[in-house]
Design a protein that fits this description.
By secondary structure, the chain is α/β, with parallel strands linked by helices.
Amino acid sequence: MKIRVGILQFDIALGDRERNRETLRRSLTSALTPSELPTAVVVPEIWDVGYALDSSDELADPEGGGNAAFLGETAREQGVWFVGGSVLASTPKGFVNRAQVIDPQGQVVDYYDKVHLIRLMDEDKHFLPGRRMCRFDLAGVQAGCVICYDIRFCEWVRAYAVRGAEVLFVSAQWPLSRIDHWEALLRARAIENQMFVVACNRCGSTGKTRFGGRSMILGPGGETLFRAGDGEEAAFVEIETGEVAKTRAFLTVFKDRVPDLYAPLSANSSRRG
């Protein structure tokens, strides 16, 4: 099946939700062209307020509802899906880094709370970790989403693939200082899972941290279908998801796995350090 996927790579104004909403709208309308294909858009991690974690009490969106309403209205106007990025959301138990999946009718189909929290950014001190996958049907295509640091955990992305995911959406705030890791990890996740990867990073700076951009759309063989630069950029690419089945039939990675050997290694890895 053919669908269209897009990334909106932009800078994020720290703590300024209205300005960031304006930026998202401008980026989308400047790049989107009419199409009969189902179209899915991904934007950066915590696109609504950035890493203003010390102001979570003031800035967090209850259950992500306000941002879901904004994205829902935009999705209806433009006839697109939104798959992330994530927003700073509050729940009765605490704060979460939450990606939302919204269909062209403006309805929230699913959500994903970031599972792997990066201690380097003090996420573990501010967020509750998610405990579930986000897998959904995107107009007949099996899709999933993760957030930034999650891509360093190959087991987590493989779990999506073995459950049938054909396209993985990634939103991120990945720094320029480790941008080579970003590109290598995305390509590895695409190749080893024989799936499309649609990954949107932010650009610009917050304080002393520069973010690297280089959002990417990769095919199931790891081929580059789109690669952004380090500034604001938006792009849409048509993909044929039938290529996933062809790739998996040609190189039978999933038939050749020996998962009973891997389970003990995974269970013991934390004890071995």
